[in-house]
Write a structure and sequence with these properties.
Chain A has 4 helices and no strands. Chain A is mainly alpha-helical. Chain A has one domain. In chain A, helix 1 packs antiparallel against helix 2 and helix 2 packs antiparallel against helix 3. Chain B folds into 2 domains: 72 residues, no CATH class; 175 residues, no CATH class. In chain B, 28% of the residues are buried. Chain B has 9 helices and no strands. Chain B is 63% helix and 0% strand. By secondary structure, chain B is mainly α. The interface between A and B is small, with 9 and 11 residues.
């Protein structure tokens, strides 16, 4: 009989792994920087946190560390992807030709106009 | 056309490198570096914690495995080899790192940042990045300090901890492009740490074994696996941590360009 926490941990790890695989796939398949960032942050963050928590559930002595890792990932991953996306946009990396909405560009223009006035 | 000119320019450098290599080859081809010490293959199936037959040790690796915790007091075998058995090599490594950082600084000093416009073009960081970096930076510095303080207990050590601290400083520079650590402070920390390393080596000359960088206090305080143990090893790793950290921070600062 396998302990219940091991089963829960394994399920969490499997969920995390599938998100990681999907994120990696998106990193290769999606058309431009901004779309790829979606894959590289959202699903990779969830996948990594899920794997960490799963390991913590399987071995409760590691749970504190796993939660710390998860919190650290939750702080750093969105910030870094935000910085990358902002840097890419400001340095003029074009959007994919099929993109339908770009709210950052008009917002930037409005801000610049305000600064001039 | 372009390629040819660049090739012409690099010819003297290539010739110099070849000359240097030939000199080294001629100088060292006759030198006897001693007998090969490894008489047998290392046992491939060695498991950590397995008893080692101390009676017939045939390789340096097995010797270190059998005696390192007793001789150096370090729970981490890699640290025992890097700082204790091969301490002098590590001094050389630190020197190489210093020379590399100085060389990069010298190369970058040829680039003049004469256009003030370029400086003004640096974007102010967004609020998210700024606040996030402020939140994360102390944690990164703390982690770096942890890594080099526990170098004799867990994986990692002075070099790794120093690089972690420098990466934290890189984050700081990204989050606050206008601010920066003073160049003077960085070089003072760096030189003090280097001097501390050599001073700890001289302590080895003065104590029982009279060997440079000898670790004579190995078993004198603490037990293997405690924070205060392993004699001079943690102190040396603290010095290396400060040195590598300040060196790498200086490197990042030089790459950023408005230092000097």
């Amino acid at each position: 009989m396998i302990a219940i926490n091991v089963i829960i941990g394994m399920v969490l790890i499997i969920i995390g792994l599938s998100f990681q695989v999907l994120g990696a796939l998106g990193l290769i398949r999606l058309p431009d920087v901004y779309n790829r960032l979606q894959a590289a942050t959202k699903s990779i963050t969830l996948g990594a946190i899920s794997i960490a928590i799963g390991v913590g559930v399987m071995d409760p002595t590691l749970l504190t560390k796993a939660i710390l890792v998860a919190v650290f990932l939750l702080i750093t991953n969105p910030i870094s992807s935000h910085a990358i996306a902002r840097g890419a946009y400001r340095s003029g990396v074009p959007l994919w030709k099929g993109s339908v909405v770009d709210k950052y560009g008009p917002a930037l223009e409005r801000k610049e106009r305000e600064v001039k006035e | 056309m372009m390629e040819r000119t660049t090739f012409h320019r690099s010819l003297p450098a290539i010739a110099l490198a070849l000359l240097f290599a030939a000199t080294l080859f001629v100088a060292f081809v006759e030198v006897d570096f001693g007998e090969p010490r490894i008489e047998e293959e290392l046992p491939v199936n060695y498991q950590p914690g397995e008893e080692i037959d101390t009676e017939n040790i045939t390789t340096p690796g097995l010797r270190y495995l059998a005696n390192s915790s007793e001789e150096t007091g370090s729970a981490n075998l890699v640290t025992a080899v890097v700082v204790n058995y091969r301490g002098f090599d590590t001094l050389g490594e630190v020197t190489i790192l210093f020379l590399a950082a100085t060389g990069v600084g010298a190369l970058l000093s040829f680039i003049k940042d004469d256009d003030e416009k370029k400086k003004k073009k640096i974007l102010p960081p967004s609020l998210i990045l700024n606040k996030g970096a402020r939140l994360v930076l102390p944690l990164i510095i703390l982690f770096g300090v942890y890594v080099f303080l526990h170098g004799h207990l867990s994986p990692g050590g002075g070099f790794q901890g120093g690089v972690i601290i420098a990466s934290g400083m890189l984050l700081f520079y990204i989050a606050e492009p206008t601010k920066g650590a003073s160049h003077k402070v960085i070089s003072i920390i760096e030189s003090t740490a280097g001097l501390a390393f050599i001073g700890l080596g001289i302590v080895g000359l003065m104590t029982a074994s009279k060997i440079f960088l000898a670790n004579d206090f190995a078993g004198d305080w603490g037990e293997v696996g405690m924070l205060v143990s392993a004699g001079l090893l943690p102190l040396i790793y603290i010095a290396i941590g400060f040195k590598v950290g300040s060196e790498m921070t200086g490197l990042v600062e030089k790459m950023r360009g408005d230092g000097s």
